[in-house]
Specification:
alpha/beta; 11 helices; TIM Barrel; TIM_sf; single chain; globular; eight-stranded parallel β-barrel; 249 residues; gluconeogenesis; binds phosphoenolpyruvate; cytoplasm
Length: 249
């Protein structure tokens, strides 16, 4: 019912000339897949992604987008530009954006709305910091973030929205949530989506887990009924480990 999605978030790694070679290698080595694969490199690599991946089974997208449609916003990149480059996805609300750039739930929702206007699918990230989990408040904290980040966000279909649960303490740390903890959070997220968009809709929205996913822990995480794939940072940078993840999906 929900097609597994494995999305690689390259963050601020690699340069366009390296990326072009890497993309071509991925395309060459990729077996036919049942799951969906997406790469999310930095903006300057998107033209190469378009060149290499157009018409292939690899989708691609961006790691952020402007909350504005167009205008005098120096340094910003609009959803329309991403659409023109053939992007299918863009991450919004990654914890690194929230932490280092002060992004609020309201801003994240605004960005998600811009993407939907242009036919792109937001991969909307939520997740709690360590102190919140230690206090036993991970679920209410994450659901409040989800509600705020979905304010006014009306995806036209369940495929037009992806949620990524990324506990902040698990990102880039080598510590992943247990499959059971991830499942409990994903179930709570799906319940909240059902209250907002209706049961039938929520059952079809993909909820990815992110936070130190690697070829050793991915199969167990994926075996959970509400885990529909992974948003992968570090392990998406090496071709071998990314291919290993795709073979498990
Ligand atoms: C991420 O960048 O969203 C992420 C989960 O990173 P990592 O897999 O390296 O923890």
């Amino acid at each position: 019912m929900r097609r597994v999605l494995v999305a690689g978030n390259w963050k601020m790694h690699k340069v366009p000339s390296e990326a072009r070679v890497w993309f071509a290698e991925l395309k060459r080595l990729l077996p036919p897949l049942q799951s969906e694969v997406a790469l999310l490199p930095a903006y300057p690599m998107l033209p190469a992604a378009k060149e290499v991946f157009s018409g292939s089974q690899v989708a691609y997208g961006a790691q952020d987008v402007s909350a504005h449609r167009e205008g005098a916003y120096t340094g910003e990149v609009s959803a329309r530009m991403l659409a023109d480059l053939g992007c299918r996805y863009a991450i919004v609300g990654h914890s690194e954006r929230r932490r280092y750039h002060g992004e609020t739930d309201a801003l994240v929702a605004e960005k998600a709305r811009r993407l939907l206007e242009e036919g792109l699918t937001p991969i909307l990230c939520v997740g709690e910091p360590l102190a919140v989990r230690e206090k036993g408040e991970a679920v209410p904290y994450t659901l409040a973030q989800l509600q705020g980040s979905l304010e006014g966000v009306e995806p036209p279909s369940p495929d037009a929205l992806v949620i990524a649960y990324e506990p902040v303490w698990a990102i880039g740390t080598g510590k992943n949530a247990t499959p059971e903890d991830a499942e409990a959070m994903h179930r709570a997220i799906r319940q909240a989506l059902a209250e907002r968009y209706g049961e039938g809709f929520a059952m079809r929205v993909r909820i990815l887990y992110g936070g130190s996913v690697n070829p050793t822990n991915f199969a167990q995480l994926l075996s959970m009924p509400n885990v529909d794939g992974g948003l992968v940072g570090g392990a998406s940078l090496e071709l071998e480990s990314f291919l290993a993840l795709l073979r498990l999906a």
